[in-house]
Each structure stands twice: as structure tokens, then as C-alpha cells.
Amino acid sequence: MEKLWHRLGQEFARSGHSVTLISRLCDGLPSRSDEEGVRHFRVPGYDQPSGALGLKIRDLQYTLRAWRVLPESDVVVTNTFWAPLVLGHRWPVYVDVERMPKGQMKLYRSARRLRAPSAAVAAEILRDDSTAKSRVRVIPSPLPFVPQVPVSWDQKEQTILYVGRLHPEKGIDLLLGAFAEARKGGSLREWKLRLIGPVAAGKGGGGEVWLEGLKARIPQEGVEWVGPIYDMAALSEEYHRATVFAYPSVAESGETFGLAPLEAMAWGCAPVVSDLACFRDYLCSGRNGLVFNHRGPGSVERLAHTLIEAAAHSRELGNQALEVRSTHAPERIAAEFIGDFRTLTELSRPSS
To answer: How far apart are CA 163 and CA 136, in angstroms?
Structure first.
């Protein structure tokens, strides 16, 4: 989410629009700054609490702080639970539905738009509120970067990469078991599995106790736990070196788009994903990636077989995957958003 709107804001500004991003004050960043033509206002926020009630209370407090610094605007894009309710009486609200709805869409009938990053999310919005059809628009998420160099196939390593939160719903145990199974069979014996992402509960991970239990249960030969990488250049280098990218999420009602597989595809990785609807908008199994059935008995063996197949056909799959550099380029997706904003607010074109 943060990477997406950070890049989109820059693209909007390059097109001549006035852009303000309001985000959490953290990591030593200033409360106000100007970067790449974008004004940044940062307000105090919180790490994610464990309980749903605490989350809603802190979300409201954060939204109220954001409201106090919000400048006059033609459109306000929101992604917190309370923002459409708090801001809807004053500004044209554009709700970015980045998580599967859980009953709240009926509360947002005053919003001008409900943007879905995938057809799967759009379908869930309409299940939540059947009256919302005219206000729903599917606009895919853009790449947060534009690769400036071609893929160096000869520099790719025998590496399967995972990037994302280290949490049970991401299928980490499934991936570890499948990798161990594939190594045991000899096909991927010389390969390594690199897992990049946060494990801390406050960062959306499963926690250290969960991780240590996982390591104790499943063989760790060839497995490298890297931790989170937030620098985009360093993360891009990881994608560039990897040959296969695995994202075996089992979050049936949690995944909405899957940005990490898209990022990996932009660097020629052969993606392997679970059979969730959100991936179907940009991944065609057998053409630019592979899909495995993550449900029911035998899922570990099925994933192991799919990883072996992806490794064997990585060059063909990776070549087709590179098309996302064009289809999901930031400037292309930003233009879709600007066009949609104009239909809602009759924004005048910026003066030359």
C-alpha cells in the first residue's frame, strides 16, 4: 500500500497535479517534507495491535489526526476503515479497497468511488453491497518501480525467492515443506530458498515463537532467512538474482492483488502462486507463471512438483512475465487513476 501510493503520487505530480500524501510519522522521517513534487504530512500512528477492537480504536485516532492536516482537495483517496465516514461529508472520497470487504461497504455509500485492485475484490465488494455496482472500478496496482536495465539471465542464481510478511496465512510452512520435499527428491538439491520479510507481529508477521516452532518442525537445509528489506534498489537486486518466485498464500479471504509476484515478474522470475482468484488478473498458468492447488491433502507435494517445473521452464516463463513492465508501468496505471478522478470530480487539466 505505502509503496503503491508513494509511486502514484510522484506520477500524479509529474503530470502537473498538486499532491499531498498523509502517512504515519515513524522511522525518523520529518513531520512535513517535499519530495519529487509531492507534499508529505506525517502524523503519529501505531503498530498493529492484536485485537480487532484495539485496531478500530487506533484507526479512528489516526484518521482524526489525518483529518486535521488534510488540505482542500478535489479528491481524497482513503484506505483506513474510518476515513470514508469521517471525511465523506466534506470531500469527494475515493475509497481504495485494498483488503477483502468484511461487511463495511454498506457504510461507504457516500463515497464517490470504490476502487478494487482486482476483479476478485470487485466481486466481493458487490457481495457486500449489491447497490455499489455503478461506483466500483477495477484499476490494477502498478509496479512501484520501473526496471531500467534488461534482465541478465546468466546472472540468475539457483534460488527460489519469497518476499512478504512471514505469517501462517502466507503459506510459509507449505513452502518450506515443499522445498524440503523437492530437495529430498534430488531435483532442487543445489538450490536455495530465500525468505525476505518481517516476522514481528507488530509488522504483520506471525511472531518469533511461531517462526522458531516452524524451524524446529521442518528441515532447514538450503533455507536462508533474510529479514525485511525496505530499500527498493536492494529488493530489486534480490528479484534480479532469483530464478523462481514462490508466493503460496492460503489467505482465501485476505489476498486482494499480490504485488510481490508482480514485482518479481518484472525482473524475469518464474512465479509460482496458489490458486487464489486475485492472481488471475495478471498471471496465466503455463504462460507467464504456474499455479498450484493449495487446498486439501497433498498440497505440499503439489507445490514441490510445481517448483521443480518452474525451475525447469524458468527462462520461458520469465520471458513472458516481463510483459508486466509495460502492462503495470506506474505512468500507465497513474493515467487510469487520473482519468477516473476526472469522471468523478470534473478536474480541469493542469495549466501548461
So the answer is: 30
